[in-house]
């Protein structure tokens, strides 16, 4: 048969050149069968290759990376929760001869295997791992698929988990749990703030109790700040010797001056405080009027 094919090529020359010479691209390979047997030398290409008419046939194999979107799979997790998961698989043909000779449809076989592998891997893990550890799941799937498809001439390069869809009831339960956790943290933070404020007030009360004059100065300072805030809001108006709010006297001058306050402190034999603090506080108070 081979000699007859060569004779046919010679007889029909040069027209046989259009039939005998084929071209494959850089990303393709040609697997040639002669009388049903693989031609020695493996896949041909890229470039021009020669076939004998009538006795040779060939199959083109694309070596470029392909992507496959795994459709959503209903999976029962290890903790008995039903979730819907989809993924994407990146694979390519690494051995053109094996992919043609060892399996009828390498691409379809790889896609079906990806679906079953996704269900098998996720079925052995609880829900919290599926949600938080996607990288490890993707790596496990990639290794498992690569080992299974090696005999088909397929190289699985990457697997990515795209989306994990939870039942509506489970989503509501998880949202309620997260809200309760946030409220608990807020209450803890508020309690810590109250505790710190209570300590600060206790320390302040101890300092003021040691000096009654400091309590009087604190009262004058608070009154001045309150008056200044009210004036800035436009609530007070001038009337006679005092300030009025809606027709009534809201605040009047204190009944003693700086000298009287110092004499009162000396008379009551109170613990002495720096005279500068008295002066600055009362002068700032008088500036409000």
Automatic annotation (TrEMBL):
A Pfam family annotated for this chain is: Band_7
Can you give the residue ranges of the Band domain? 19-178
Q: What is its main location?
A: membrane
Q: What is this protein called?
A: Band 7 protein
Which compartments does it reside in? Membrane
Specify the domain of life of the species encoding this protein.
Answer: Eukaryota
Tell me yes or no: is Signal among this UniProt entry's keywords. yes
Q: Which family does it belong to?
A: Belongs to the band 7/mec-2 family.
Q: Which SUPFAM superfamilies match?
A: Band 7/SPFH domain (SSF117892)
Q: Does the keyword Transit peptide apply?
A: no
Q: Sorted alphabetically, which keywords does the UniProt record give? A: Membrane, Signal
**Originating organism:** Aphis craccivora (Cowpea aphid)
Which GO cellular component terms, listed alphabetically, does the Swiss-Prot or TrEMBL entry include?
plasma membrane
